[in-house]
Amino acid sequence: MNASLRSPMPNPYPFAALIGQQPLQEALLLAAVDPGIGGVLVSGPRGTAKSTAARALAELLPTGRFVTLPLGASEERLIGTLDLDEVLRGGSVRFSPGLLAQAHEGVLYVDEVNLLADALVDALLDAAASGMNVVERDGVSHCHEARFVLVGTMNPEEGELRPQLLDRFGLMVALDNCFDSDVRQRIVKARLAFDGDPDAFRERYRGDQAALARRVGEARAALARFEFDDAVHAAVSERCVGAAVDGMRADLVMLRAARALAALEQAAEVTVQHVARVADSVLRHRQRERAAPEQAAPNDMPRGHDAAQGADRSNGADRGDNDHRQDATGDSDDFGYLPPETTGMIGVKGVVPFAVKKR
Question: Which stretches within the chain are classed as H helix?
Answer without folding.
Answer: 22-33, 50-58, 75-79, 84-88, 99-102, 118-130, 163-166, 181-196, 198-204, 206-222, 230-242, 249-264, 272-283, 303-318
